[in-house]
Each structure stands twice: as structure tokens, then as C-alpha cells.
Design brief:
By secondary structure, this protein is α/β, with parallel strands linked by helices. The strands form two sheets. Strands 1-2-3-5-7-10 form a six-stranded mixed sheet, sandwiched between helices. The chain has a four-stranded mixed sheet with strand order 4-6-8-9. The relative contact order is 0.15. The chain has one domain (about 5-225): 2-enoyl-CoA Hydratase, Chain A, domain 1, CATH 3.90.226. The chain contains nine helices and ten strands.
Length: about 230
């Protein structure tokens, strides 16, 4: 990863680790989203189980707030890119394990929720969907990503109140499957990915699509209806 590359892909045997690190808050700019999509393509071509991690103390703070000062078309294109990443992760043909290294907010949390296994670091950071607290309506794809992974009570509370949770509260609400020591969260995720590399991948991919069919259909419809591509 160079000083200007926000995403790095490293393969080690049956596991491919994708690391987001823009040196700051891992904001979901078009550049980072494009780089993340390219890294997922590399991992898919390699046929590996994916570990997706952030920088120490920060998974992703979501979209760049400055984005909302741009034109309506630019905003729409960026949010659509974010929705497409969530849809791709939810339907990825190999397991995806997240090592949540710190704050995961809004779009960062949607990406977290799209993984198969979500391992959070212990610490004082926050995870959640803060859109209503800052005057935004959660996009349809984000609602469906949250609906299919959070607990029923956690889903309603997280979406409608804008609450940001600590790691232990995040487990209760359904953001995380488990927690690990901050220094070990990446290693724990890579170990889980290695374990998952032994399952039948054809069965995994087919079953994933069956399990998530309602969410994937709703996300696709939400992206296309709410965030249509504008032709010149």
C-alpha cells in the first residue's frame, strides 16, 4: 500500500486479507470504494476466504461528510457505490470475515453487517447507524443490511435512534458475533477464515444466496429505485 492507496490486498494461502487504511477515518470516498471493489475482485479471482479489516482504532467512519456539499448526482453516485459494495459482500461466493479494528459508523457499519462473521476488537470505540442523529435518512440498502443481521430489537433501536454502541453492546444488538483483544482481532479473524477455508465453497455460495435472497432482492430494488444511474 502506497501513501495514496487506501486499500491493500495480501494473500496468504487460502486467506486474502483486505486492509482499509487512508491514514485517517477510512471514509467511504469513491476512491476507497473503487479500491475495495478491486480488492474483492482480486480475492474472488484467487478463490480465497476474505478477511476485511481497518486501521488500528478505525474500521470506517462511513461517508465523507463533505460529500453532501457536492451535486445531487455526485452524492447519488457515491451512495450507489456504497450500496453495490454491500450487495457484493452479502453475495460474495466465499466467506467474508470482518476484523473490526475500531469505529464502524453508518456506511462503515453497513459493510460490517454484510460479512459472514464479524469479530470486533475490545476497546472504547463505537459502532452504529447515526444517520437520524445527523439529519439523514438511512438508504434502503442500509436498512436491509441491518435488518438481516441485527436482532429485532437491535434493528429498530439502532435505525430509529441513531445510537452508537460500545463493543459489548454491539454484540447484544447483533453488530458483532464475538469480541477479541484489540491486538489479536486480526489474528482471530484470519484464524476463523482459515477454518472456513475447509468448508465446501459451492455449498456455501448456494446456501448464502438462498438464506439472503429476500435481503439481496430488497437491496437491489432499493439501489435501483432510490439511486438510479443518470444517463448523459
Amino acid at each position: 500500500m502506497s501513501a495514496t492507496d487506501p486499500v491493500r490486498y495480501d494473500r496468504g494461502g487460502a486467506v486474502g486479507t483486505i486492509t482499509m487504511d487512508d491514514g485517517k477515518a477510512n471514509v467511504m470516498t469513491p476512491g476507497l470504494l473503487t479500491a475495495l471493489d478491486q480488492a474483492l475482485s482480486e480475492a474472488e479471482d484467487d478463490g480465497v476466504v476474505v478477511v476485511l479489516a481497518g486501521r488500528p482504532g478505525m474500521f470506517s467512519a462511513g461517508y465523507d461528510r463533505a460529500m453532501f456539499d457536492r451535486t445531487a448526482d455526485e452524492i447519488r453516485r457515491t451512495i450507489r457505490m456504497g450500496g453495490e459494495i454491500v450487495h457484493r459482500l452479502l453475495s460474495f461466493p466465499r466467506p467474508v470475515v470482518v476484523a473490526c479494528t475500531g469505529h464502524a459508523i453508518a456506511q462503515g457499519a453497513f459493510v460490517l453487517l454484510a460479512a459472514d462473521v464479524r469479530i470486533g476488537a475490545q476497546g472504547s470505540y463505537r459502532v452504529g447507524l447515526n444517520e437520524v442523529a445527523i439529519g439523514l435518512t438511512i438508504p434502503h440498502y442500509g436498512i436491509e443490511a441491518a435488518r438481516q443481521r441485527l436482532t429485532p430489537s437491535g434493528f429498530n433501536h439502532a435505525c430509529t435512534t441513531g445510537t452508537l454502541y460500545g463493543p459489548s453492546e454491539g454484540v447484544v444488538a447483533g453488530f458483532f458475533d464475538e469480541l477479541a483483544e484489540a491486538h489479536d482481532v486480526l489474528g482471530r479473524a484470519q484464524g476463523e477464515a482459515e477454518r472456513l477455508s475447509a468448508i465446501d465453497m459451492a455449498a456455501h455460495a448456494a446456501t448464502k444466496l438462498r438464506v439472503r435472497a429476500p435481503a439481496l432482492l430488497a437491496i437491489r430494488a432499493g439501489i435501483d429505485e432510490e439511486l438510479p444511474v443518470r444517463r448523459p
